[in-house]
Design a protein that fits this description.
The complex is a heterodimer of chains A (276) and B (368).
Chain A (H helix, E strand, L loop, with lengths): L2 H5 L5 H17 L6 E5 L3 H7 L4 H22 L3 E5 L10 H18 L5 H5 L1 E6 L7 H14 L5 E6 L4 H17 L10 H6 L11 E4 L11 H4 L4 E4 L9 H30 L1
Parallel strand pairs in A: 1-2, 1-5, 2-4, 3-4, 5-6
Helix pairs in contact in A: 2-11, 3-4, 4-5, 5-7
Chain B lengths: L6 H12 L6 H13 L9 H42 L13 H42 L6 H8 L8 E6 L9 H18 L4 E6 L8 H16 L7 E5 L4 E3 L9 E6 L5 H16 L10 H11 L6 E4 L18 E4 L8 H13 L7
Parallel strand pairs in B: 1-2, 1-6, 2-5, 3-5, 6-7
Antiparallel strand pairs in B: 3-4
Classes of the chains: A alpha/beta (276), B alpha/beta (368).
Keywords (chain A): Signal, Transferase
EC number (chain A): 2.5.1.-
Family (chain A): Belongs to the UPP synthase family.
Amino acid sequence: MSIGSWIRTFPLIQYLLVWAQDIFVSILRTGPVPQHVAFVMDGNRRFARRCKLEVREGHSAGFESLAHILEMCYQVGIKTVTVYAFSIENFKRPPVEVDALMEIARTKLLQIIHHGDLADRFGISIRVLGQRSMIPSDVLAAIDKATEMTKHNTTAILNICFPYTSRDDIATAMRDIVQQSEKHELDPATIDEYMLEQHMFTKDCPPLDILVRTSGVERLSDFMLWQSHQDCVVEFVDVLWPEFEPWRFGSLLLKWSRNKAVEYRKQEMEQDQKIL
Amino acid sequence: MPPPSPSFPLSPPLSPAFSPSASPPPSSSASSSPSSSSTSLAIKPRSPQIQREITMQKQQQKTQKQQQKRARKMSLAGRVSDMLVSLLVPLGARQSLMHTSLVQLAVFHFYHTILIFLHILVAVATLAVRQYYTLKNNFMAFLYHHHRTPQLIAQDVQGLAKTPRTVAVVLTYRESEEGGGIDGLLEQVADVASWSIGAGVKHLSVYERTGQLLDLHETALAVIERTLVTYYGDSRLPTVRLYTPRTKTYFPAEEPDKVDLDISFVAKDDGRGFLVELTREYAESAARGDMDPEEITVDLVDRTVVERVIPEPDLVVIFGPKLVLDGFPPWQVRLSEIYYARYNNSVTYNVFLRGIRRYANCKINVGR
C-alpha cells in the first residue's frame, strides 16, 4: 500500500479531500472553461487484470470513475461531455464481455436518470451517438427512455458514443447529404464543411476543446477524428481509466485554462496595437 | 478593451441636479415677491394662500430634489456596479457566471485571484518541465545521430519488433527564421526522406498546412537527391518518386523500375476539403441517378481516400512542440500512432527514431 492510499484511510481525510475539491472547482469556474471535452475511457480491462478482478468488474470500476469525472465537469461548467463507451469494432470482443458491457450500459443508464442522480442534479440531457441498428432491443429501450426523460434539460449535454466510430460518423453524414441530393432537395454545389458537420452526430455541440485518452496509448482509435484534428488539445494520459482521478483531470483543466488566458491576453494586446 | 469613459455615467444626473437656478425660474420670482410683500400690510389677506402655494412649491422642489438625489445615488451605485461588473469580468469568464451583486462579485474575485496565482504556478512549473525536456531532447540528439551513415540508422532500428511501412510527418512552414522558408522546408523533407529510407519505410507523406510544397517537385527532388548522395554515395543512390495527390502529378512522370520511397505532399485542403469534395461528387452522381446513396459505406470512402489522397499512416510524427494535428487529414489518422517530442521545435533524427521505437512497442488491437 502506498503512502498516499494509507493517508487516505485516516478518518477526516476523505471529508477534507471532498471539501478541497469543491474549492478547487469554484476556483476553476472563474477562469476560461472548455465548452466541450471528450474522453476515451481506456484501460478498464488492464485495471481488472492488474487488480485480479473479473473483466466486468473492471468495467464497473470504469463507470464509477466516469461518474466522478462527469460530476467535476459539470460543476466546473463544461457544457458538453462526450465519452467513448463502445466502438463498432468492440463487437469483435468475446460475447461474454460484450453482453456484460451491454448490461452495464443498460443498468447505469437507467441509474443516472433516476430522480436526484447525475442527470437530475446538473440538468443533463443525455444523447446516445452511434449506429442504433446494432444495439440489442432491451438496451435500446433503456436508451430511448433515458433520452426521452432528459430531453428537456438544457444546462448540459452528455454524449454517449455507443456503438460509434468516427469514420462511420463521417460516412453516415455523407450518405445523408447524398440522399437529400438524390431527391433533389439540395444543390450539390452548396455542400461544404459546415453542411457535413451539421449532418454528424455532434451537430448541436460546441467545437471540441480537449480530448483525453487514458492508459498511455497514443492514438485516436477512430474517435472524434473530424472534431479533433484541428485546434483541439489532445491529451494522452498514462493512467488507466479507473484510476483517472478528478484531481488529475483538474490539473489538465488548469493547464488548459492558463494557456487560454495567455491566448486571450495576446489577442487583447494585438487589438490594442490595432487601435493605436 | 477600452474602458467606458467615467464621465459618461455621471453626466446625465448631474445636469438637472447641479443647476437648480436654471430649471425653476418661475418659482424664484414667486419666492422673491412674497419676501418683499411681507413688509407691506396691504396684501396681507392674500398671504395664507400665497404662503400655502409657496410651501407647496418649496415642498415640491424639495421632493423633486430628493428624488433627483436618490435617483442620482441609485443610478450612481447602479452604474458603478455595472461598470465594475463590465470592467472586472476577467477575460474568458462567462458573463452568465457574473453576478450583479457586489458581494457575489467579491467572492468571485477572491476565487479568481487564487486562479491567477495557480496560473503563475503552472507557468513556473512549465518552465521547469520545458528545461527538463529541452535537456532530454539535446541529450537524445547527442546519443542518437545519423552521421549521414545508413548503416547507423539500420543499426538503430535493428531488433525492433516491427517498423512502420507508411509514415507521415507534420512540418511547419516558418517565415523569416533561421532554417525557415521554402529552402529550410525542402532541407527538412530531404532529411526525413533519407532517414525513412534508412529505416525501411516505403511510403512517406509530408503534411504541411499551407501547401507550399505541393508543386515544387523538381526543386524538391534535386534537394533530396543532393542529400541522399551524402548518405549513400553516388553508386547506390536510392530512387525516390514524388507525388502530389491534389494535382495528380508524379515526378518523375514515368514510373521507374524500382522505387525505394514514395513521397506524397499533402496540405490542409486534402483533409476535410477532400471529404467535402467527395461528398459533392457523390451527390452530383446521385442527383443524375448514377448512384445509390446506400453504396456509400466506410469501405467505399476508405478505398477512395487511399487511392486519391494518402494511405493511413502507421506512424504520424509531429515535429512541433505541441500535440496538435494542425489539420492533418482526419480520415487517415484512425489508428495511426501519433508521436511528438515535448518542447521540441526542430526536425531532428532522434525525434524520428523515437517515433519509430514508440511504434515498435505499441500494440494495436482493433476493438479487441
